[in-house]
């Protein structure tokens, strides 16, 4: 039994507009599974596949003030590529963001709805990840979070210390999941969360029970009667367990 990280879910005021932004940002295509939902994934992608973690944008009303615990870091291959990508993102509607980063080699931006993300300087570790280098989740204890996420998913823990932990698909492809130590306590609902999926033939209820035994708790984000299950990890970061596929 194991789970796969298959997509990052963005709550949006306008899923279509935000979906178009992220499709342009990543060089991917868009599709829709219904009103209020825009799927962003590589052109010709056979979902789910570990070579990419897709973006699912869902229209949901939300509070004006949100503290983000999960965000995307985008990969670049050269200084020129980074400069070109940042310029293109600004033209698409991104804005510079100050999260107290100071003088750093990466660039912090916000998408048109204020979701913060980073454009990284070229790093060898991310040379084969695709446009998304890593999905970052802020946390207080990377070691404990690595234990949880390492057991919750079939992803491999590649590096862990007091400041961060890094996981990647067991097949060694696609983006990383990075658990980054930060100060501060989550006090409001996340607008960006992770979606996990059991393998075909596995049982969703059994997976949810296993996650609860690992320290996950039930989460109510107003989801109502839906086929997926909303949980929170031991530090309160919401995520969803989809039906097997």
From TrEMBL:
CDD domains: VOC (cd06587). Residues 131-244 form the VOC domain. InterPro entries: Glyas_Bleomycin-R_OHBP_Dase (IPR029068), Glyoxalase_6 (IPR041581), VOC_core (IPR037523). It holds the Pfam family Glyoxalase_6. This is VOC family protein. Gene3D superfamilies: 2,3-Dihydroxybiphenyl 1,2-Dioxygenase, domain 1. PANTHER family: CONSERVED PROTEIN, HYPOTHETICAL FUSION PROTEIN.
């Amino acid at each position: 039994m194991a789970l796969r990280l298959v997509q990052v879910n963005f709550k949006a005021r306008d899923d279509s507009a935000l979906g178009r932004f992220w499709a342009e940002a990543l060089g991917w295509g868009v599709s829709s599974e219904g009103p209020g939902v825009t799927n962003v994934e590589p052109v010709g992608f056979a979902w789910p596949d570990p070579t990419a973690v897709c973006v699912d944008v869902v229209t949901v009303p939300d509070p004006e003030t949100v503290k983000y615990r999960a965000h995307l870091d985008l990969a670049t291959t050269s200084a020129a590529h980074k400069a070109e990508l940042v310029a293109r993102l600004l033209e698409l509607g991104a804005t510079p963001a100050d999260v107290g980063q100071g003088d750093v080699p990466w660039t912090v931006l916000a998408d048109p709805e204020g979701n913060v993300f980073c454009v990284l300087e070229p790093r060898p570790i991310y040379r084969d990840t695709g446009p998304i280098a890593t999905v970052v989740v802020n946390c207080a204890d990377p070691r404990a979070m690595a234990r949880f996420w390492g057991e919750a998913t079939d992803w491999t823990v590649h590096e862990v210390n007091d400041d961060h932990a890094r996981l990647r698909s067991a097949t060694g492809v696609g983006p990383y999941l990075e658990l980054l130590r930060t100060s501060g306590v989550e006090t409001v609902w996340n607008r960006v969360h992770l979606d996990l999926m059991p393998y075909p033939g596995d049982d969703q209820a059994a997976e949810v029970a296993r996650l609860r035994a690992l320290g996950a708790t039930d989460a109510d984000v107003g989801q109502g009667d839906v086929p997926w299950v909303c949980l929170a990890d031991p530090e309160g970061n919401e995520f969803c367990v989809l039906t097997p596929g």
